[in-house]
Amino acid sequence: MNNIFLITKREFLTQVKKKSFIILTLLAPLMIIAFGAVIGFMFKANQSHNVIEVVDNSGLFKGQLKSDEKINYVFIPSAEENAKVKNLKGNENVDGILVLPALYSNNFDDIEKNTRLVVNTKIGLDTKQQIISDITNVIKKEKIKQLGIQEAQLENLDKSFTLKTINVSEDNKEDSDLAFGVKSVLSMVLMYVTFMFILIYGVRVMRSVLEEKNNRVVEIIISSVKPFELMMGKILGVTMVALTQFIVWITMSVVGALVLNTGFSSLQNSIPGGNEEMMSKLDIAQIATQASHSLLEMNFPLIIFVFIVFFLLGYMFYSSVYAAIGSAVDNETETQQFTLFAILPLTLGMYGSISVINNPDGPVGFWMSMIPFTSPVAMVARIPFGVPAWQIALSMALLLGTTIFMIFLAGKIYRVGILMYGNKATLKEIWKWIRG
Questions:
Q1: What is the DSSP letter of 55?
Q2: Quick one: average pLDDT of 104-117?
Q3: Cα dist. 123→52, 56, 93, 135, 193 in Å?
Q4: Is the pLDDT at 377 greater than 80, yes or no?
Q5: From CA 104, how far away is CA 101, in angstroms rounded?
Q6: 3-state class of 386 per DSSP?
Q7: Which of 21, 56, 369, 432 has the fewest CB atoms found within 10 Å of its own CB?
Q8: What are the pLDDT digits (tens) for 270-296?
Q9: At what angle do helices 363-370 and 389-417 cross, to 10 degrees?
Q10: How many Å from the N-terminal Cα to the C-terminal Cα in the chain?
């Protein structure tokens, strides 16, 4: 046991003392936020503003096709249609001409059949869809008017319905759309982070084992410690490294949420009577503040506890598999045929958990959070929505038992494979090592 502790300590200190680890741990959350901001800026910067001249031969659309930040509709006389279309090519001030045909006998089908858009540049699909939507809305309103329905009645028909959801299992707490959205995002983040870090740190264990094996350093090391102690020391050392990063990142996230929540409280108090209408018109910054407020209303200690436990157990489960693979092969190329057995179940758990978000208590979510191969990902995806205590305990017990068993099997493979050179390990041979 003392040897395992010493190896764990060595692996941990070797990693955390590196400048790259310190920089990455502190800057990674900021880099992720910056990366998201850059992507958002790219989408925003790629948006174009199109000038569309409109020839309205029907007289129906003038004043009803509204310009916005993406499309500027400019109506021109019907007499200028031919000249405008002829001179469109090379005209940098106009992107296209929308020609709307005359309307006879209120036959709106003719408008759909004979309307055409002449462009001098490639317009985006979203721009084309918006033009179609704008035309459709005008025709829809005209058809409704012909039915004798007033504008006020039409607005009343289109009025959205808000359904308040009260969860009796959570002390009659109202579950708003924003709260559900926050839970969904948190679920996706926890699921993806668990998947990525089990994969990344598991591969790190495999490469560390493979490197020491190829350098023959392991022959010296196991003269002082048992192979199983060496394997466990490596797994636990890298586990502590990952856990350290998680603690730092979770602390930074909670502090950030508390800061935003303080801003939300001050903002709410500054609005007389908690004016909901004014609150609904706030910008993205205020929405983010409300989201952090909803985030802090969750059972955060339970979420963090379940996340850490399932991450650690899931990591140890798959790291033992990766350690066994690293000891059984001689080079990176040979690892490909074996790592598939570790990646596939984890990938299945991640993509299968996407459906869990829509129905956290469904049969798929339940069984995926019980099966040890997928539960590290599936359970953390369910936990923001609330999971019964008995399901958490059962899933944790199953994963713990399977992890211990997997470490036992990996230890038997590691004990033989770490000193095997030149022989390409096959599944049949590995099975012999396990039985032996």
A1: E
A2: 79
A3: 11, 21, 14, 17, 38
A4: yes
A5: 9
A6: coil
A7: 432
A8: 444 444 444 444 445 555 555 565 655
A9: 40
A10: 24
- Mean pLDDT, to the nearest integer, of 326-353? 77
96-100 and 116-119 strand pairing: antiparallel
Retrieve residue 423's tokens: 């022989």
Can you give the pTM of this predicted structure? 0.63
247 near 228, Cβ under 8 Å? no
Single-letter amino acid code for the residue at 85: V
User: E strands along 37-142, which residues?
Assistant: 50-56, 71-76, 96-100, 116-119
pLDDT category, 402, cuts 50, 70, 90?
A: very high
CB 170 within 8 Å of CB 283: no
DSSP 384: G
Could you give the C-alpha distances from 340 to 199, 301, 322, 326, in angstroms and in order?
A: 12, 35, 11, 13
Q: Nearest-CA neighbor of 52 among 44, 60, 61, 43? A: 61
**For range 248-253, the mean pLDDT:** 75
For 132-147, give one letter per residue: b (16+ CB within 10 A) or e. eebbeebbeebeeeee
- Bridge partners of 54, per DSSP, are 75, 98
